[in-house]
């Protein structure tokens, strides 16, 4: 594992950090055994920092980490978590949340404590409530070691926040598609020059840059003789920047972990060639041409009061264009509630605007959901759901039942 030095405190941080926002799940809950084994494997192979937050996995992420790290693994890693800034209404709330988080994480001290999802507006409110005094007092009491913030703010707002305090660390979204979005490259360099350790989230843009990718992008990557996967390319791009201290990846698959560990061990700052950097520019153009919604699937917009599964709506909408394949069946069956009995399609949106306030990408979600509804639902979607459920599903179930009987007969 490659380690990069935090110049402020001398910590040697693994170039790859473990993001605990997208742990493997089972029946909607963290698959504890699988997640534990994956995290142990990563730590045993050099990862020495884990990032979590109060709301991750419905509030279960911190407690889960507290459970699994007490077996001697706590001493092997730095813990990063975040104050749920949107829920802070008074000074006492900050004290209360920190105590809850210390208890959930089963630790006496949080190594890196960040204010979650900072904007100039939210920071202004928190400053009036005494957030900086609270953080400094907590550090003096030994409850936290390093003070920082995470942010999806634009460059101008990001710089204002950086200049407002002597931060130890910041966490920003950064990948080859977001060079000029949010803080971007200019923000990365600005924070670094101020002596702040910069940690990175969403290096794969919520998975859009890895796994199943457009054929045109695969063809471009294939021009290189490295044989690297799209995920490999995406991580390499971020780690190529000398200003980056650590890249957090939300890993939930054993092969992902092994591949990411290999990349973090091999890729040094400024190691990409000019020819390789040109490939990124061409792949970027492919995505920009095909993607309809710049959504990372982070889930901050959820839950929707009307039950809309906003990230999945956008995911299927993007897939329709990225892979030039109809998503009607998946959309109808899953979001139409045919399989689950729970409707979650875009047309349920009533434009309440709650999701807009929560979205770190500043997406006009209701308007975009309208586009999804128009293209993937069309007219009479309720009627389509009814027909599919009463006609198609019985036929499908009968086929499955017949197939199962045939399989049992052959086994017998």
Throw out a few tags for this protein.
412 residues, alpha/beta, TIM Barrel, 2 domains, 8-stranded parallel beta barrel, two-stranded antiparallel sheet, 47% helix, globular, disordered C terminus
Report the portion of residues in β strands.
5-15%
Provide the number of structural domains. 2
Query: What's the main sheet like?
Result: 8 strands, parallel, barrel
| Full CATH superfamily name of the largest domain | NADP-dependent oxidoreductase domain
* Count of β-strands: 12
- The CATH class of the largest domain turns out to be Alpha Beta
Distance between the termini: 51 Å
Average pLDDT confidence is 87
CATH topology-level name of the largest domain:
TIM Barrel
Low-confidence stretches: 406-412
What string gives the helices and strands in order? EEEEEHEHEHEHHEHEHEHHEHHHHHHH
């Amino acid at each position: 594992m490659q380690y990069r030095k935090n110049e402020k405190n001398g910590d040697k941080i693994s170039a790859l950090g473990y993001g605990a926002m997208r742990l493997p799940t089972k029946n909607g809950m963290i698959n504890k055994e699988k997640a534990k084994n994956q995290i142990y494997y990563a730590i045993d192979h050099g990862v020495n920092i884990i990032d979590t937050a109060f709301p991750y996995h419905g509030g279960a992420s911190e407690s889960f980490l507290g459970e699994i790290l007490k077996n001697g693994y706590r001493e092997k890693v730095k813990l990063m978590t975040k104050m749920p800034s949107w829920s802070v209404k008074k000074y006492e709330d900050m004290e209360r949340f920190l105590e809850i988080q210390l208890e959930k994480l089963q630790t006496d001290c949080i190594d890196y404590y960040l204010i979650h999802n900072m904007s100039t507006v939210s920071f202004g409110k928190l400053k009036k409530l005494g957030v900086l005094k609270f953080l400094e007092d907590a550090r003096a009491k030994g409850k936290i070691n390093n003070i920082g913030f995470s942010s999806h703010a634009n460059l101008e707002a990001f710089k204002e926040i950086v200049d407002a305090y002597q931060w130890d660390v910041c966490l920003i979204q950064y990948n080859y598609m977001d060079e000029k979005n949010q803080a971007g490259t200019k923000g990365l360099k600005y924070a670094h020059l101020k002596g702040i350790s910069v940690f990175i989230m969403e290096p794969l843009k919520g998975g859009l840059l890895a796994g199943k990718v457009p054929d045109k992008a695969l063809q471009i990557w294939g021009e290189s003789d490295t044989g690297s996967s799209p995920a490999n390319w995406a991580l390499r791009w971020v780690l190529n920047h000398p200003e980056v201290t650590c890249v957090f990846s939300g890993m939930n698959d054993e092969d992902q972990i092994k591949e990411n560990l290999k990349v973090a061990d091999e890729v040094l700052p400024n190691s990409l060639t000019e020819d390789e950097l040109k490939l990124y520019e061409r792949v970027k153009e492919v995505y920009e041409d095909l993607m309809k919604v710049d959504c990372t699937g982070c889930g901050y917009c959820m839950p929707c009061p009307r039950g809309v599964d906003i990230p999945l709506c956008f995911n299927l909408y993007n897939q329709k264009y990225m892979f030039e394949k109809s998503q009607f069946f998946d959309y109808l069956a899953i979001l139409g509630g045919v399989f689950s009995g729970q409707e979650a399609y875009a047309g349920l949106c009533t434009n309440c605007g709650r999701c807009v306030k929560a979205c770190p990408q500043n997406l006009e979600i209701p308007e975009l959901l309208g586009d999804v509804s128009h293209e993937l639902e069309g007219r009479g979607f309720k009627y389509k759901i009814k027909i599919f459920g009463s006609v198609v599903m019985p036929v499908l179930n009968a086929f499955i039942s017949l197939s199962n009987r045939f399989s049992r007969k052959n086994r017998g």
